[in-house]
Amino acid sequence: MGVSTDSRAGGPAAERDELARHLEEARARTLRLLDPISDADQRAQHSPLMSPMVWDLAHVANYEELWLLRAIDGRQPVDTQLDDMYNAFEHPRTERPSLPLLEPAEARRYAADTRAGVLSLLSETDLASQRLTRDGFVYRMVVQHEHQHDETLLATRQLMLDRCPALVDPAPAPQPGSVPGSGEVLVPAGPFEMGTSTDAWAYDNERPAHIIELDDFCIDASPVTNEDYERFIAGGGYDDPAVWTEKGWKWRQEEGLEHPLFWRATSHGWERLRFGTWAPLDPREPVEHVCWYEADAFARWSGKRLPTEAEWEKAATWDDAACRKRLYPWGDEPHRPALANLGGVLDGPSPVGSHPEGISLSGCHQLIGDVWEWTSSDFGPYPGFEAYPYAEYSEVFWGGEYKVLRGGSWATHPTATRGTFRNWDYPIRRQIFAGFRCARSPEA
User: Fold this and answer.
1) Are the CB atoms for 386 and 207 separated by under 8 Å?
2) Contact at 8 Å (CB) between 410 and 167?
3) Which pLDDT score is estimated for 11?
4) Residue 367 neighbours by CB under 8 Å, 6+ apart
5) Count of C-beta atoms within a 10 Å radius of residue 344
6) How far apart are CA 128 and CA 170, in angstroms?
7) CA 396, CA 389: separation in Å to the nearest integer?
8) C-alpha span between 112 and 24 (Å, rounded)
9) Residue 157: HSE in the Cβ half-sphere, 13 Å Cα cutoff
10) Contact 63, 142 (CB under 8 A)
11) Which of 102, 288, 304, 377 might form a disulfide with 309, Cβ 3.0–4.6 angstroms?
12) C-alpha angle 63-69-72 in degrees, rounded to nearest 5
């Protein structure tokens, strides 16, 4: 029942050209995000939650060297000190500013030299010759890895606050569509296929596909909006311990939080800070920069709950009539701007109803793009999980310490999200571009 995104009708040369294009698009985006940032700001740590931006650039290059030159071709390391310095598991973010990091110009040269070697090797590689390269798997992994760091760079730029340069010429926000996207939809009980075994872009934690049974459930037709969240604030949601988990309430008190990150109250109403500029809050946009504890408290306050990740995926991908899985809420068609707000085309979420062509068969709007959506699920393996090609991507994060997010945000590249993609983070994280939608059991 799975569907592969890997089209090989053009033969090996066309497949290599496609992979080279994806690699180059990712690198162009990375450099475009760094170009407006001074060398001093690239070296600085703008938040203890984030790395210096120049660390991200050299880490991306080191990851590419490791997986596209050494793992495929058996080449020797350029410099083993780089392997240590840019290993995310060896040095937590708090340590990275004190490391002897490559200067921005040096990091760019390292990235460019690595890429030149990768493209030369790709031009002569038989992709079918080994498991790593089959269907372009390891190249797709590296492309996604770079785009994921590009989203991290955007989050870091946002944390520069009023020192942040604006994004370059973001497209105008789309107008809400004719389909309102309010209320909730009922997803009927029954089996569905979760995960994938065939998608060439999928990470190990999305595999293998497996059939699970779900009871019927109701899920919001759209993400919770700023207007919805303002009512939670005005209704005393931040002051009511009854709607918070014990850990969540303790955290909310310790941090003294009363609203989402990057919001402020003024005499004219709420404003939000976005890439260095304060502006009035758009009530129609999905709420952004809320953590799992805040999302969970809102859901309880509204008499609902957060969806499980299985419920989210079924609402996003399952065609009950055809008994088959779709790659995306809108079907198997590749992303285009009318379908979802992805790739940093805008500088934030688009208003609810902006993408009526992207509605899922279940009737849900904007399941892909705009904001990552918190679910109630802990991050864990699927039945039959195999760590591949390395345990540190997924396996070391299993457990209740991390909560799963789904769907991608406006900053996520189309290659780095899909109906099966699983993100995860600590329940206190707010700097990520995350929001949520609610669900409930019909009897609730």
Assistant:
1) yes
2) no
3) 72
4) 312, 315, 316, 329, 358, 360, 373, 406, 407, 419
5) 23
6) 40
7) 13
8) 11
9) 25
10) yes
11) 377
12) 110
Please report, as a single letter, which amino acid is at residue 257: L
Burial level of 197, CB count in 10 A (0-12/13-18/19+)?
Answer: middle
Question: Distances from the Cα of 43 to the Cαs of 38, 304, 391, 419, in angstroms?
Answer: 9, 44, 30, 36
Torsion sign, CA atoms 398, 404, 409, 413? positive
- Could you say which DSSP state residue 137 is in? H
Look at residue 167 in the predicted model and tell me its pLDDT.
75
Distance CA 295, CA 437 (A): 8
* Residues in CB range of 315: below 8 A, 6 or more apart: 185, 187, 219, 307, 360, 362, 364, 367
| Structural tokens at position 103 | 């200067």
Count CB neighbours of 401 within 10 A: 12
Supply the pLDDT for residue 79. Answer: 95
Token readout for 211 is: 């059939």
Structure tokens at 215: 């009871």
Type and span of the H or E element at 81: helix 80-85
Residue 307, token pair as written in the block: 């969806």
| Strand pairing report for 324-325 and 439-440 | unpaired
Q: Please write the tens of the pLDDT for every residue from 43-97.
A: 999 999 999 999 999 999 999 999 999 999 999 999 999 999 999 999 999 999 9
The residue to which tokens 């001074």 are assigned: 38
Can you read off the two tokens belonging to residue 144? 């996604």
Of 187, 172, 279, nearest to 226 by C-alpha is 279
Helices 292-301, 226-234: crossing angle, 10 deg rounding:
70
What is the number of residues in the chain?
A: 444
Tell me which residues of the chain have a pLDDT lower than 50.
1-9
Alpha carbons within 13 angstroms on the beta-carbon side of residue 229 total 29
pLDDT at 10: 55
Ordered by where they begin, the domains of the chain are 11-163 (1.20.120), 170-444 (3.90.1580.10)
| pTM, full prediction | 0.95
Nearest alpha-carbon partner for 381 in 398, 396, 404: 398
> What separation in angstroms does the CA of 236 have from each of 231, 265, 440?
9, 15, 22
430, 289 in Cβ contact below 8 A? yes
